[in-house]
């Protein structure tokens, strides 16, 4: 309810502030996502890099299921419709994410954390943004494409510097 009030009463500025806040929270959570498996791998060097995958995926599945069940229960109590068909694609994408996560841990083991995690974090963003431009035409117009090109160039420069000078 608080978020709805901020967005509805704040207008466009409220939406922007909410977007910035959610981006900061999402970035912070994403930034610490790989810390537990990386610490586990350092504490157990004899294990394969895929050892923490099951526990990480199980934890994500359990928490997301609890969130969905809580939302469904709250919606049912308030007599809101609950789109149950949306859960199947979410679980399928979770399975795809788990495979990607396992591959990411393998890459980090072989390339080192500074290079491996940077490539694993930026690579999917590059692919999805290129699909967004080429296939779905979500980014269009000269100004938007110029902003994308500038941000892509900055990101590519940063990744290149980390790949060249990062310690494996």
Automatic annotation (TrEMBL):
Belongs to the TMEM144 family. Keywords: Membrane, Transmembrane, Transmembrane helix. Pfam families: TMEM144. This is EamA domain-containing protein. It is a multi-pass membrane protein. InterPro entries: EmrE-like, Sugar_transport, TMEM144. One of its GO terms (cellular component) is membrane. It is found in: Membrane. GO terms for molecular function: carbohydrate transmembrane transporter activity. Its main location: membrane. The chain crosses the membrane at residues 17-35, 47-69, 90-108, 114-136. It comes from Zooxanthella nutricula.
